[in-house]
Amino acid sequence: TEFVTVSELASMMDVQPTQVISACMSLGIFVSINQRLDAETIAIVADEFGFEVEFVSAEVQEAIPVQEDKDEDLLPRAPIVTVMGHVDHGKTSLLDRIRNADVIAGEAGGITQHIGAYSVTLENGKRITFLDTPGHEAFTAMRARGAQVTDIAIIIVAADDDVMPQTKEAIAHAQAAGVPMIFAINKVDKPTANPDKIREQLSQMNILVEEWGGKYQCQEISAKQGLYIDELLEKVLLEAELLDLKANPNKNAVGTVIESSLDKGRGYVTNMLVEAGTLKIGDIILAGRYAGRVRAMHNEHGKNLKEAGPAVPVSILGINGAPSAGDKFYIMDDEREARSIATKREQLYREQGLRTQKHITLDEIGRRL
Ligand code: GTP
Ligand code: MG
């Protein structure tokens, strides 16, 4: 089993990735920054830096009953997409453009709110859900917790620049997670744009785009001028079709926390993504170390919802704390049980925090690699 990557381990210990790489090297192990390490290597390297490693296994987890799905219960669901790329290559501009392509937004009439993700319904009636928390951080924070919500990654590269370190990192993240990539070559409106140079640089990384006979879809766009955005979204839908994404909407909801915060007037606000089942007002919810009841729920247009199905992002009120990005949430039948599990988790969390500061916890859950 392999656990965290070199860079994740480095950040847990608050040292530079290069220090971890050289520690590995002195053991005769040659690793790259995004490489995952096995338990033994982690233990030895951590020891070098004065850390003791504890591997938290599934045993500390409680049995949370999640209904199994039969084939006939599964219905198609919208894909969940993350945009990643180097600084200034156009992530925000692209996400804004896509948001404006939503045909439902206009008629909803509400004010657009940031809830960490949004869905767009295209003219053909198909829906795509985008995570709009800063791509990298969301992806790494969630991945570090074993959460995998992204179905497809759009890697955006500015055509007037190069494939940059963060581009490479984004590619490495997507590859490590086994998430298919679509390349968006941005800023093609610029006179200095050279999309072929980007394709060439990708090919040097063994990534051959379709135009060059490879398997990766690629689309030239201008996020600023709104050029070829529809074509890019078509490619996302095509990729989604190949993935044959399905979920059972007719059961208790399960999903992932995207972000949460404490609002002075409203209490804890939790933004999350339903992955399967249907979330309803009044549901008893367990999210990370917290629990509660869904008191109110709204979408990215500020519209109040009574329920939310698979791949729908929502913002809810009613959880008694702020769970972390990547925490799973479950709907449970028994409120006492939900609270007792939350309390147990909180205790465990405190004990671990108290026991020692020089102590890393590597959560094995969800890291079946
Ligand atoms: P960070 O969040 O800082 O990493 O940047 P980002 O990737 O979100 O890029 P952002 O969308 O903020 O764009 C960076 C700059 O590039 C802005 O000045 C944009 O106006 C500009 N830009 C983005 N897309 C295009 C494009 O298609 N053409 C041109 N000419 N400029 C663009
Ligand atoms: Mg941005």
From TrEMBL:
GTP binds at residues 85-92, 132-136, 186-189. It is found in: Cytoplasm. Signal peptide: none annotated. Residues 76-246 form the Tr-type G domain. One of the essential components for the initiation of protein synthesis. Protects formylmethionyl-tRNA from spontaneous hydrolysis and promotes its binding to the 30S ribosomal subunits. Also involved in the hydrolysis of GTP during the formation of the 70S ribosomal complex. Belongs to the TRAFAC class translation factor GTPase superfamily. Classic translation factor GTPase family. IF-2 subfamily. This is Translation initiation factor IF-2. The gene is infB. The chain holds residues 360 to 728 of 936 of the full protein.
